[in-house]
Amino acid sequence: MAEKIKDADDRLLESIFETSPIPDAGFSAAVVRRVRRQLWLRRLAVPVAALIGGGIAVKPLAGFVSIVASLSPMIPPQLIDTATSMIPQLPTVVLGGMVLAVCLIGIRSLED
Amino acid sequence: MSSGDDHRLVARVVSSQDTAAFGELVRRHQSQVRNFLRKLAGDVSAADDLSQDCFLHAWNKMHTYSGRGSFIGWLLKIAYTTFLQSRRKSKRYAEIIEEVGHKMQTDSQTCTLPADEVTDLDKLLAVLDDEERAIMIMSYACGLSHREIGDATSMPVGTVKSIIFRGKQKIRASFDIKDHKHG
After folding, report:
1. Chain B residues touching A10 at Cβ < 8 A
2. Do B122 and B38 contact (CB within 8 A), yes or no?
């Protein structure tokens, strides 16, 4: 406060406003936890969105490939078979979801 | 705690998103930020929630800290903005509730301390408006210079000085500030 010229009122007000320091008591740890959570959410947002989007798009995409293939004799029939066999079945989707959930919980507990 | 150390920690946060360095910055400044917001909001738990939000905003905006002023001045600017935003939100919420016909307390941020816990400082702050209160706290409790307060509140130094003068006049007009309980 070098630029201030303190009068008696200023000194008195400073003593009235004076308070003892607040102990941290886990405050900074809580803030850092929130920051790390935000970081992880940001890092995971794109891959998770890509995974969900891919999951939704794979079936119509395979259908599209078969339609295009039927229209064009230049695409070999093996490719069509591969595209159709790549569509994940329900147990695979459920298993994938479970693995993802376990990973998220694991990351969260490591972070805490 | 030197400003050079603060600058080094800020550099680590900006360059490599170092949460440990940020944790150290929080540990160094949490007391001042929480004290500022407790005095401003008059409610300990609301002020601590606002302090957490303030530090989260600081994390997201760390790259905007130029290093020109003090780090605590920059933090208090964010704290003040966070306080004003939350006050606007709670006022708007109260208006919406009233619009749909319910009665509620107009402001959840106001001081709700029991009468025996009200210190002279609380009484003294009650005669000031939000802006005067924030500036007086920055000046007398946090020890910021007029220039730093100007940076924190986006006001010219002359305006800061006149608000402090006005605040002191209001306090003088309302109280005899010779005997007091510490706040």
Report:
1. 140
2. no
Domain presence at residue A10:
no
Task: Please give the Cα distance from B141 to B32 (Å, whole number).
Answer: 9
Report if residue B169 sits inside a domain.
yes
Report the alpha-carbon distance of residue A23 to residue A6 in Å, rounded. Answer: 30
A32 contacts in chain B (CB < 8 Å): 19-20, 22-23, 26
Q: How many domains does chain B have?
A: 1
What pLDDT tens digit does each residue of chain A (112 aa) get? 445 567 777 888 888 888 888 999 999 999 999 999 888 888 888 888 888 888 788 778 777 777 777 776 666 667 666 766 666 677 777 788 788 888 877 776 766 5
B64 near A CB under 8 A = no
The ipTM (two decimal places) reads: 0.73
CA B94 – CA B107 distance, rounded (Å)? 7
Per-residue pLDDT tens digits for B10-33: 999 999 889 999 999 999 999 999
Provide the CATH number for the domain around residue B151: 1.20.140.160
Structural domain including A83 reads 32-111
Structural domain boundaries, residue B154: 3-174
Interface of A with B (CB under 8 A): 1-4, 9-10, 12-19, 21-24, 27-32, 34-36, 38-39
This prediction's pTM: 0.69
Q: Considering the domain boundaries, does residue A58 fall inside one? A: yes
SS3 B116: helix
